[in-house]
């Protein structure tokens, strides 16, 4: 089977590239002989990193040839069909789906997080185009409801984010230790690590200050504060801004890491404060206690899926709330950890469901 993957790949975003890694891994596990081509912003880097074929996503000739040569187009995962970051960005992904349909190719929506889609034009296009695809899978019930409200009447399978299919045992903790020491950022073995994944967003002056104060409070309790970025280099700057507001020392990592390297670093966390969705998804896969900082409904949806109440809106969060939650989570019992491990086993199986559905197509 010749599969073409369309998504936000090759933009040095650890979360989206982790989705690609997880999808490729799942497809090869079920169909070892699968031939995979990826539409990427950095095709040479993507090809080498994931051992796939890759095509420049901006090349009209390359795109046409890739669609023509595939048997099935996979659109996903991540949050492709939304118009919050750009009202026209959604047209790129819908356009590729429409092109595949015009060439009579099968199309699958793969574990996407849908919405918000606010523009009436975009909502009509989503319904019109997705009602003609062969399979739709989404990563949460809110995404399913969003599609139904837009007028999608095809069967919609709810699964989970593909990254939850990555098992903690597949990630080498020592690789993370090496990367932390190579960063020469004052990392100390033996200390409890609070890893923070923040990003620039509206009202950042306010919530960056609250995050900084909460990190200072944790540092006073003996925790080492490590800022880990998920979108390079934008998130590095966000980490440096917060660290500059702190009274205590913090480690700000600056390397451009692969998804596997990011997860290896994250495996050294004892607690995660995550604003980036995939910092929380990776943390869950690695069985780490977490506090969520929500700037988007997708963060709330994921924390609700985990039945995790420790999720705070960035525009109203207070340092005192964060510290209270983190101190409680930092004392996670073995019973709580075992329960989380059992939940992740179920979710890991659910993460493979879209790949199994694609095989049946």
Name of the CATH superfamily of the largest domain: Glycogen Phosphorylase B
**Arrangement of strands in the largest sheet:** 3-2-1-4-5-6-7
Number of domains: 2
Count up the helices.
15
What is the N-to-C order of secondary-structure elements (H for helix, E for strand)? EHEHEHEHEHEHEHEHEHEHEHEHEHHH
Instruction: Report the C-alpha radius of gyration, rounded.
Output: 20 Å
CATH A-level architecture of the largest domain: 3-Layer(aba) Sandwich
Instruction: Tell me roughly what share of residues is in helical segments.
Output: 40-55%
Largest sheet: 7 strands, parallel
Structural class computed from helices and strand pairing: alpha/beta
CATH fold descriptor of the largest domain: Rossmann fold
In whole angstroms, the N-to-C terminal distance is 10 Å
Shape: globular
What does it look like?
The structure is a single chain. The chain has 361 residues and is α/β, with parallel strands linked by helices. Helix content is 48%, strand content 16%. The chain is built from 15 helices and 13 strands. Strand 6, helix 6 (141-150) and strand 7 (156-158) form a beta-alpha-beta unit. 47% of the residues are buried. The protein has two domains: 2-158, UDP-N-acetylmuramoyl-L-alanine:D-glutamate ligase (3-Layer(aba) Sandwich), CATH 3.40.1190; 170-347, Glycogen Phosphorylase B (Rossmann fold, 3-Layer(aba) Sandwich). The chain has a seven-stranded parallel beta sheet with strand order 3-2-1-4-5-6-7, with helices on both faces. The chain has a six-stranded parallel beta sheet with strand order 10-9-8-11-12-13, with helices on both faces. It starts with a strand and ends with a helix. It is globular and about 60 Å long.
């Amino acid at each position: 089977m010749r599969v073409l993957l369309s998504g936000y790949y090759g933009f040095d975003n650890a979360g989206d590239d982790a989705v690609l890694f997880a999808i490729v891994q799942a497809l090869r596990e079920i169909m070892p002989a699968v031939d995979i081509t990826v539409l990427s912003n950095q095709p040479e880097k993507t090809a080498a990193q994931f051992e796939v074929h890759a095509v420049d996503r901006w090349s009209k000739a390359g795109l046409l040839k890739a669609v023509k040569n595939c048997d099935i187009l996979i659109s996903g995962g991540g949050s492709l069909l939304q118009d919050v970051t750009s009202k026209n960005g959604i047209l790129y992904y819908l356009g590729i789906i429409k092109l595949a349909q015009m060439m009579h190719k099968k199309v699958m929506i793969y574990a996407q997080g849908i919405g918000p889609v606010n523009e009436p034009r975009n909502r009509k296009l989503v319904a019109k185009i997705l009602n003609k695809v062969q399979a739709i899978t989404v990563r949460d019930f809110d995404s399913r409801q969003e599609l139904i409200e837009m007028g999608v009447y095809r069967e919609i399978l709810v699964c989970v984010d593909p990254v939850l299919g990555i098992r903690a045992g597949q990630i080498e903790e020592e690789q993370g230790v090496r990367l932390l020491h190579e960063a020469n950022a004052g990392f100390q073995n033996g200390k409890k690590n609070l890893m923070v994944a923040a990003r620039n967003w509206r009202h950042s002056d306010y919530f960056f200050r609250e995050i900084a104060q909460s990190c200072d409070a944790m540092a006073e309790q003996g925790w080492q504060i490590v800022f880990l970025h998920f979108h390079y280099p934008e998130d590095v700057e966000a980490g440096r801004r917060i660290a500059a507001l702190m009274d205590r020392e913090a480690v700000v990592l600056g390397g451009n890491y692969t998804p596997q390297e990011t997860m290896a670093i994250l495996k050294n966390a004892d607690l995660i404060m995550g604003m980036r969705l995939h910092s929380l998804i990776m943390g869950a896969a690695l069985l780490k206690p977490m506090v969520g900082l929500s700037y988007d409904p997708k963060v709330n949806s994921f924390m609700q899926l985990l039945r995790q109440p420790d999720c705070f809106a960035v525009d109203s969060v207070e340092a005192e709330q964060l510290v209270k939650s983190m101190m409680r989570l930092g004392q996670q019992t073995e019973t709580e950890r075992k329960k989380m491990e059992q939940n992740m086993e179920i979710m890991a199986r659910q993460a493979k469901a879209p790949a199994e559905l694609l095989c049946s197509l």
